[in-house]
Design brief:
Elements lengths: L1 H25 L32 E9 L10 E6 L12 E4 L5 E8 L1 E8 L6 E2 L4 E3 L5 E7 L5 E8 L10 E5 L13 E2 L5 E6 L2 E8 L6 E7 L6 E2 L4 E8 L10 E6 L2 E6 L5 E7 L2 E9 L2 E11 L4 E3 L3 E2 L1 E2 L1 E8 L7 E6 L6 E5 L5 E7 L2 E9 L5 E7 L4 E7 L4 E8 L8 E8 L5 E8 L2 E7 L2 E8 L6 E7 L4 E7 L4 E9 L9 E5 L5 E6 L5 E7 L2 E10 L16 E5 L4 E3 L2 E4 L30 E7 L2
Parallel strand pairs: 1-8, 9-15, 16-22, 16-23, 25-31, 32-38, 39-45, 39-46
Antiparallel strand pairs: 1-4, 2-3, 2-5, 5-6, 5-7, 9-12, 10-11, 10-13, 13-14, 16-19, 17-18, 17-20, 20-21, 21-24, 25-28, 26-27, 26-29, 29-30, 32-35, 33-34, 33-36, 36-37, 39-42, 40-41, 40-43, 43-44, 43-47, 46-47
Length: 618
Amino acid sequence: MRRWLALFAVVALAAWLTSLAARATRHAVTTDAAVAVPETGGESTLDPARMVARPGTTTARLEGWVGDPSKHGLSGATVCATASDAELVDEDYLPYCVTTGEDGRYVFTALPIGGFDVAASAPHHRPAYATDTVTLTAGAPHDFVDLVLEPGGVSVQGKVEDPLGRPVPGARVTASALAASDEEFAGVPAFTDGEGRYTVWTPPGAAYVEVVAKDHVRIGRAVTAPSAQEDFALVFGASLVGLALDESGAPVPAARIEVTVGGEHFTTRSGADGGYRVDGLPAGEASLEARADGLLATGLGGVTLLAGDLATAPSLTLHPIGRVVVTVRTPGTACKGSVSLSGDDWMDSASASVDAHGVAIFGVVQEGKHSVTVSCTGWVHTRTSVVVGATGTTTLTVDVERGATLQGTVVDATGKPLAKGNVWVDRPKKGGESGYTDVKAGAFSLSGLSVGEYEVHVSAPGHVEQRVKVNVSGMEVAKVHVALVGGATIRGKVVDVLGTPVAGAQVRFVGPQGDVGDYALTDAKGAYVIGAVPTTTGVLQVEGKSADLVLAMAEAKDETGLPFAAKAGQSLTQDLVVEACKPHAARHGDGRRGEARGGRRGRGPATGHRGILRVVVR
């Protein structure tokens, strides 16, 4: 009996040791990978082989916790870090993702040095993102980001298929906020399974869902969450291959290649032999640009891409380019701000922070004349220019002056301070100098203004925007008091000619001078509510967003909207019936995250797949 007990003990011990080894293997972290499996559990949602940091780059550790408002850790939540630094962007803005362990902890052990936007998602919770970009530096290799997910998230589910009706596994599906949405959220990707099925979690309401899959053209459209079946049919994309070489004909490894087709941008990096390949490109004419340390190639175009074909681009020859060092001199305290350079081409622009010594360095600048803008908190924005040579270092010293301060109070019609609002000032007669700040507890302050007359635009939720003129003289503190009046409220439903509710459409009131009042997005039932409508006559406009139905501005004046009159304090109802105008070939932004780093809310109409719907008066 003792012999059998001893044998049983040995077998049990062996099984226990095997279990420990399996667990250790499952939670092991590859130190040279740019994404890691959390030490507390969970699996990476992306293939680590595609996430390896480029040779020679320094890496840092990022970790944190994901939980709910009651401080319970959420197990199995997806956490993604997306590079905000263009020089780190590879694989078409592919994010680095991990999942949380049982206690809600996560860890990235080897992210490249640079800036990252961090977001998290979990079933039945609303996605959340870090409001500030996380900057990983070699001097601070351990950074921590905790995220709290509110309950109430809903799902969008569906299937992704190729042009032949076959499921596409491994496709990246991301839901993000529509422009002007009442609730901002960052897109956290999900990946289709072997049957091409996916599930993403969003707040209830309108969202934009985008699908990216290897060898296919990305596709996206507006949806209304929750949604049990949002299927996507992909089309085969074109592929482009080429070489990045220096002036001697030698290969340039790790060059950042950017391909632009129809306003969309796709990026990759060249390999050790200088070769590169970009897949999933839409059909059309492609232009290329390549950048590497101290080298640049631009302006190569005329490459025709056909769906499903492999095209070869002429070799990209990278030439030495200039380096610019800008020194900002301020009397007294140092500048806290940035310097921006802008060439003739909008793509040839860059910005750099001013360090503690007042220096901003640009390492990749194209030859030619560049505009220079220095922005320091509390100092007058200063503009000048610099001529950059083809090689070598160009130095520039910029003296800035301390600016005046504009302070003000904002109240409602009863004299009560308004809790929040926005203030924007500009000098139309002086080159468009402008500034922006928020109203907090009925007050605002904006510094760094030069001498002159400004037009001050003050707005607040539910109130009509007010404009006043203020003269700023000397380095004094100018003061202004603004009383805002409540606007009219317009509510109703938007339906198509068949009576079907139109979700995710934007309804706005446009005044006689083309000024836009408040606006709103329709919900799943087509309902909308617009506040802060000024006391005036104007038109109601409806703007749709859909990848399947791209709309154009109607040319006839009587089709640009429904004439409407509003008075302060009124609550009005207006249902709208709309139909599409002829489609046009607009594209969705530049193909990047976009604004799913999303787009942040702003005043005025949004852009993208949007177009004006013709309002049908019945």
